[in-house]
Write a structure and sequence with these properties.
With about 325 residues, this protein is mainly β. The chain has helices at about 95-100, 275, 315-325; strands spanning about 25, 40-55, 55-65, 70-75, 85, 90-95, 105-110, 115-125, 125-135, 140, 150-155, 165-170, 180-185, 195-200, 215, 220-225, 225-240, 240-250, 260, 285-290, 295-305, 310-315. The chain contains three helices and 22 strands. Strand 18 (about 240-250) and strand 19 form a beta hairpin. Bound molecules: beta-D-mannopyranose. Beta-D-mannopyranose binds near residues 106, 280, 283, 303 and 306.
């Protein structure tokens, strides 16, 4: 039985696997949990991140506006399912040359050393990775951008590895990026990043075609006794455009550029109407996973068709058994 090396989270949002379901991940029956018009200005609310906070939950949400601008908003929840999102965007304190907003999207939130670190795709003469932190989800401080453009999907590990902070990312281009592999970078101070190592890339043949165009890290990696459980997105180019599915892999705990296991089969993909129909059809895009160290349960938040937010459930055991049963060879 795989063990999640994290605190217990008895109030993790949860539904049991439906009778007869053999999928590794199952959706919440009340999906989507956040509608596109959750705040007065929003056209869509998706690709967002939640963490345990003060006995309940807090999060950072991507709300695209009705002028179709992209920005980040704080939100709070008692149960992880019903959210109150602040109608005003997060204002970051810091060097005005860095905090000046072009656009902000696809946040992740990582709790480390008493702080909630936020990483996101930040417009700075092209997309790069912004980093900030908060202790209360009211005051947010912004640090230097982690990388030069172009990069999307910056995802911190929840502890230092070999004495250094570690972050997965996906170097990209300034457009819709028809390529992309996952790398890991290290930093002594969350400002200067280096020691870049290649983790894993696309599979450009039919061993695993759902991840043939590009891949990118999703939620904060989950530490288990079998390795870092990485949930990631993979993209296929079809005659109707990109299709975003979700996969899983296990990375070495101390050398996280070494892939121990990787599934050939996706774990979740656009199949429900709210995942297939929206502003960008056929997108399931995971950005956060709550986990319970006591039971191994995982609740994953994911954007649906770039329009609404859903939640789905699994366990570390289910995911690891699934990727071992359908390994990439
Ligand atoms: C990516 C990002 C994501 C989005 C995806 C599908 O480039 O914009 O936020 O979910 O495309 O449109």
């Amino acid at each position: 039985m795989a063990r999640i090396l994290a605190d217990a989270l008895p109030n993790l949002p949860w539904q049991d696997r439906p009778a007869g379901c053999t999928d590794p991940v199952w959706r919440y029956s009340g999906n989507p949990i956040i509608q596109r018009n959750a705040i007065p200005s929003s056209n869509s609310v998706f690709n967002s991140a939640a963490v345990p906070f003060k006995g309940g939950f807090a999060g950072v949400f991507r709300c695209d506006s009705r002028s179709v601008s992209m920005d980040l908003f704080a939100g709070f929840s008692d149960d992880g399912l019903h959210w109150r999102i602040d109608p005003d965007p997060i204002r970051f304190e810091g060097d005005p040359e860095v905090t000046a907003r072009e656009y902000r999207y696809d946040p992740r939130v990582c709790f480390m050393d008493g702080r909630y670190y936020v990483t996101w795709c930040n417009g700075y003469h092209g997309p790069t990775i912004g980093i900030g932190w908060t202790e209360d989800f009211q005051t947010f401080h912004q640090l230097e951008n982690a990388f030069l453009p172009y990069n999307r999907n910056g995802v911190l590990f929840p502890r230092k590895i070999g004495g250094r902070y570690a972050m997965l990312s996906r170097p990209s281009d300034t457009g819709h990026t028809p390529f992309g592999d996952i790398f890991v970078s290290f930093s002594p101070d969350l400002t200067y990043w280096g020691g870049h190592r290649y983790v894993m890339g696309t599979i450009r043949d039919d061993r695993s075609a759902w991840q043939s165009t590009k891949i990118g890290p999703g939620p904060i990696p989950i530490e288990t006794d079998e390795g870092w459980l990485l949930i990631y997105h993979g993209v296929l180019t079809t005659c109707n455009g990109y299709v975003y599915r979700v996969g899983a892999a296990l990375l070495d705990l101390e050398r996280p550029w070494i892939v121990k296991e990787r599934g050939a089969w996706y774990i979740l993909g656009p199949q429900e109407l709210y995942e297939c129909v929206g502003d960008v059809p056929n997108v399931t895009f995971p950005c956060a996973a709550l986990c319970d160290g006591a039971t191994g349960r995982i609740a994953m938040y994911y954007g649906c068709a770039d329009t609404v937010t859903g939640i789905a459930f699994t366990t570390a055991d289910d995911l690891i058994a699934f990727i071992k049963a359908h390994p990439l060879k």
